[in-house]
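Handout, page 2. Input:
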Amino acid sequence: MKILFQIVLLVCTSLLPTLNVLACTNLIVGKNASVDGSVFCTYSCDDYGMFRRLDYYPGAVHSKGEWVDIVDLDTHQPHGSIPQASETYKVVGNINEHQVTIGETTFGGREEMVDSTGLFDYGSLMLMGLQRSKTARQAISVMTSLAEKYGYNSEGETFTICDANEVWIMEMMGCGPGSKSVVWVALRVPDDAICAHANQSRIRTFNMKDKRNVLYSKNVVSFAKARGWYSGKDEDFSFCEVYAFPDFGGRRYCEARVWSFFNHFSENMQRYLPYVEGKKEGAEPLPLWIVPNLSLIHI
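Output:
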């Protein structure tokens, strides 16, 4: 049975004037968790002036030999150029003409994994995904192949990547100075579920045999093993715990925003309070997504 869902936009950022808190939040709804079968993807960014306009990029057919400049979203500085695609699609803000939408939140992660030599920052990578993709899966392929070829210079990032039918959550980090390489994993959010992320890595273990709903880089586990950060079985590997461990701030100021969203649509969120309060070690972590409870939906 389709679950009725009315999306509620929440302001969950703590008002702590003396603390520098990252405050981007993505709220995600699968098509079978919405009233009319639509996919929802919201993107808030608490950075004054960063998204004061909706940039428009026209679609075009390009000649062989054309190049495109890669410009940093935050600094507006050029990083270099790459060959242009044979065709690009119209983009307004964070959505293209085929309804591919991409949002993000920055979680940071291990500082030693940042690669300043990489060509792409998170923003230019998102733009390439929008300009060159007709589906969410294609956007993942475009973004990861470009990062693997030219490098990624931002900190750890969680991306929401969706189209009219599917929603994916992808996390990516560089492999250190000069590596021009990345580790990443992408999971498809179930159609009847809601998901969110807010400046804390959220993907833990994942089923490496599920080729339909799970995508990942070949080095996602081997890189951690080579650096001495992980020595267990591949199937027990947790992206979050190895590359961006959720410390007190990650739980209390970031995961708490996700908890607040989930708490509107589930009767079982009290069990995760010890985790989002950030105090109890070994507390049960938040699930990556939940199926909303019909009885709690606000009509």
